[in-house]
Design a protein that fits this description.
By secondary structure, the protein is α+β, with helices and mostly antiparallel strands. It has two domains: 146 residues, GAF domain (Beta-Lactamase, 2-Layer Sandwich), CATH 3.30.450; 243 residues, 4-Layer Sandwich (Phosphatase 2c, domain 1). Helices cover 33% and strands 26% of the residues. The radius of gyration is 24 Å and the shape is globular. The N terminus is likely disordered. InterPro entries: Bact_Sigma-Reg, GAF-like_dom_sf, PPM-type-like_dom_sf, PPM-type_phosphatase-like_dom. Keywords: Hydrolase. This is PPM-type phosphatase domain-containing protein.
Length: 413
């Protein structure tokens, strides 16, 4: 015992950069062949080695309202955290660490970022926090996000944690088809959201950033339930096939039209809207097959409906659509949406309408929560305006052209 009967001071754990590199390397080496159910205990064990405790992994639920705790040995599993009003939610929406002083230390909430897609939040408590701790925990959170994304494709554990209510078979099909709900780069950002999250059927969206061109599309398959979900699956598959064959916008329509007509006959259809955005120049090209006109948003206000020539919905054998174009300004956003957003009726039987959609956009206050957070807030605002009711699929897909340089590697040699 130390002089005077006092306990010797507890040694501080090593969280220097050199130690951190070894720790992350060890975690990566161990995670390669680790079964999914042991990922959480592994993370908790490694965090304990640097003096951390009360580790929680929180994943976004399908409705984008809650951060749901991932169960696992060694994890602190409590109730879900609201995204709209909690330290965990702020870390998630703003993609930055949030520190909350507590009586026994500091609770740190770190965004789990896979590239730019917010997977969830890692929460851990330390006695004290300095810059070495912040650097190490930030890198640890990035590695944990990558591990979760890698492992989730062959386990149901992460899907089950995110599910807060029963999901229909059609919705199960649609969620398995979607790309990440958000993507951001210095040149461009996108975000999408679908309602009703647990009963979506015919709506879908897809995108890919290939070199300097962002390819994106929004779809609305006729009907409800399994047939609509099946049509959406076929049209997305045909769209991806055409995109990877590097055909132009109007020819993509032909690929999809043939696929839907061959599979479902002449009485079934899918409405669609497809776009190309040159992320260097800001040139937007799009075609429309039966969708409402997208909205151009500048300085957080709708400045124009992007009217264009239309063709028949996919499956009806329409003429190849005419390509429309517009030069964007830096910071411009373009909102694509399906008709369920504006055709929903409130309890009084009134149609929601495009004017009310535009009013909702214009009345929203700018925030620091990023494109995904703002789209999420818009979707939930629209749902509240409809009295919390969504009887038809309602999809929002938002594109922002930033026009910055991605990296020196993009410059000519």
């Amino acid at each position: 015992m130390a002089e005077g009967g006092r306990q010797p001071p507890r040694s501080m754990p090593d969280r220097s950069e050199g130690f951190g590199e070894r720790l992350l390397g060890l975690l990566l080496d161990r995670a390669h062949e680790m079964p999914p159910q042991l990922i959480a205990p592994l993370v908790a064990e490694e965090v304990a080695s640097i003096g951390g405790r009360d580790v929680s992994i929180l994943l976004q639920d399908y409705g984008q309202e809650l951060l749901a705790p991932l169960p696992g040995r060694g994890l602190l599993v409590g109730g879900p955290e609201p995204i709209a009003d909690s330290p965990a939610g702020r870390a998630f929406l703003n993609a930055t660490a949030v520190e909350v002083p507590q009586a026994d230390g500091v609770r740190i909430y770190l965004p789990l970022l896979d590239g730019s897609d917010q997977v969830g939040v890692l929460a851990v408590t330390l006695d004290t926090v300095d810059d070495d701790d912040r650097r190490l925990l930030g890198r640890l959170a990035g590695l944990v996000a990558d591990i979760i994304v890698t492992k989730h494709s062959y386990t149901d554990q992460f899907f089950q944690a995110r599910r807060r209510e029963p999901m229909s078979v059609a919705a199960e099909m649609q969620w398995s088809l979607l790309p990440p709900l958000a993507m951001s780069a210095p040149q461009v950002a996108v975000a999408g959201i679908l309602e009703p999250a647990y009963n979506i059927a015919g709506d879908s969206f897809d995108y890919a950033l290939n070199d300097t061109i962002l390819h994106a599309a929004v779809f609305d398959a006729m009907g409800h339930g399994l047939e609509a979900a099946t049509m959406a699956t076929v049209v997305v598959g045909a769209y991806r096939h055409a995109r990877r064959a590097q055909v132009d916008l109007s020819e993509k329509y032909t690929f999809m039209d043939h696929a839907i007509a061959q599979m479902f006959g002449p009485e079934r259809f899918v409405t669609a809207q497809m776009m190309h955005l040159d992320v260097v120049e800001g040139t937007l090209l799009w075609v429309n097959a039966g969708h409402p006109a997208p909205l151009l948003i500048r300085d957080h206000r709708v400045v124009e409906r992007l009217e264009s020539a239309t063709t028949l919905p996919v499956g009806f054998g329409g003429q190849r659509p005419k390509i429309s174009g517009r030069q964007l300004q830096r910071g411009d956003r373009v909102l694509f949406y399906t008709d369920g957003v504006i055709e929903e009726r409130n309890l009084a039987g009134e149609t929601f309408g495009e004017d009310r959609l535009i009013n909702c956009i214009n009345s929203m206050q700018p925030a620091e929560e990023g494109l995904r957070g703002e789209l999420r807030r818009l979707s939930h605002t629209l749902k509240e305006e409809r009295g919390g009711h969504t009887s038809d699929d309602a999809t929002l897909f938002l594109v922002e052209w930033r026009g910055d340089t991605a990296d020196h590697l993009t410059l000519p040699a």
